[in-house]
Amino acid sequence: MVVVSGSNAHGMAGQLADALGWTHHRLETRRFPDTEGYVRIPSDVIEAVRHEPVVLVSNTFPDSGIVETMLMLDALHDVRKGSMKNLRNIGPQTLPDVGKGLILAVPYFGYSRQDKRFKPGESVSARAIAEMLASRCDGLVVLDLHAPPVLSGLSVPVAFTSSMPELAMHLKEQVNPDFILSPDKGAIDRASSVAEQIGCEFSYLEKTRIDAHTITHKAKDLDVAGKSVAIVDDMIATGGTICRAAEALRSQGAVQVHAACCHGLFTGGAIARLLRYVDGVHATGSLPNARDVISGGPALARGVHDVLQALGLD
Ligand code: R5P
User: Fold this and answer.
1) Within a 10 A sphere around the Cβ of 274, how many other Cβ atoms?
2) What is the chain's pLDDT, residue by residue, as a tens digit (314 residues)?
């Protein structure tokens, strides 16, 4: 079986291939001068992606990633179906349909935070993108999705997989925290699973987001005096959530504060800002970033096995 990737997720595709013991091939991707994208399955990869199930690893972030993912799925779908017809008449024009087995693994699902309609007329963007992707593959694997319910009931099996076991192992080895903090209610499940695996104390904060850059937390007594604390969230974007939580921890006597997440977006100088408040920042490489220290490969591999099983291909 094979893993393929385009331009935005080579690292994760390599980690997944290593975890599964499969071969990783890169698809050809480039841009026309007007910025539109071009994708092609290289001739020497065509047989490999027809032979057995294939996993495409691709991010739907930034926006260009959505288009590239759709184009790569389209090319893989046609090749697996045997639709090879081309104007230069190169190679056989049709081949037998090889059937189901095209899986899309998305390390970072862009638009995942737009998962509800707050006002009439809004697009539920996460759902709209998921439905588009599902129309061109046989199964989806999504890593640490912000709010999984938005993808329920899609037309293909979906595996919601998580890097929290590997994140916990990393924190235990590198930080050995006494206390794990969830910076908001949304991260409670994820962060508490990390605390449980490490075997340390846990609590959470209640967060109010005023705007993209302004966060407040409800005051809460945390038993962190003299302790080493790791704040665990699904993603860090501006870093505002972590910086405010770290302030609360320091003011209550925490001696060390670390921040850990699956998705390191780190927008607009976030890492420099974070390092004024925390002693370390730890992330997976779901998105290429400077704090990629936790492998996401094993989590994606678990999701791939779940989807293969749901498709009866394992
Ligand atoms: C939101 O609920 C997420 O789980 C994160 O807490 C949030 O996206 C982090 O954003 P920022 O780093 O900009 O505060």
Assistant:
1) 21
2) 899 999 999 999 999 999 999 999 999 999 999 999 999 999 999 999 999 999 999 999 999 999 999 999 999 999 999 999 999 999 999 999 999 999 999 999 999 999 999 999 999 999 999 999 999 999 999 999 999 999 999 999 999 999 999 999 999 999 999 999 999 999 999 999 999 999 999 999 999 988 888 888 888 899 999 999 999 999 999 999 999 999 999 999 999 999 999 999 999 999 999 999 999 999 999 999 999 999 999 999 999 999 999 999 98
Q: Which of 111, 233, 242, 262 to mutate to test the pocket of ligand 1 (most atoms within 8 A of CB)?
A: 233
Strands 292-294 and 139-143, sheet pairing: unpaired
Query: Going by CA atoms, what residue is nearest to atom 9 of ligand 1?
Result: 236
Q: Is the pTM of this model over 0.90?
A: yes
List the structure tokens of 241. Answer: 């959530």
H or E element that contains 10: helix 10-20
Tell how far the Cα of 191 is from the centroid of ligand 1, in angstroms: 14
Ligand 1-lining residues (CB < 6 angstroms) = 183-184, 186-187, 215, 233-241
Kindly list the distances between the CA atom of residue 102 and the CA atoms of 22, 177, 203, 208, 299, in Å, as whole numbers in the listed order.
15, 41, 41, 41, 19
Distance CA 84, CA 114 (A): 37
Q: Which atom of ligand 1 is nearest to the CA of 270?
A: 12
Given 81, 119, 207, 227, which residue is catalytic? 207
Catalytic site includes residue 172: no
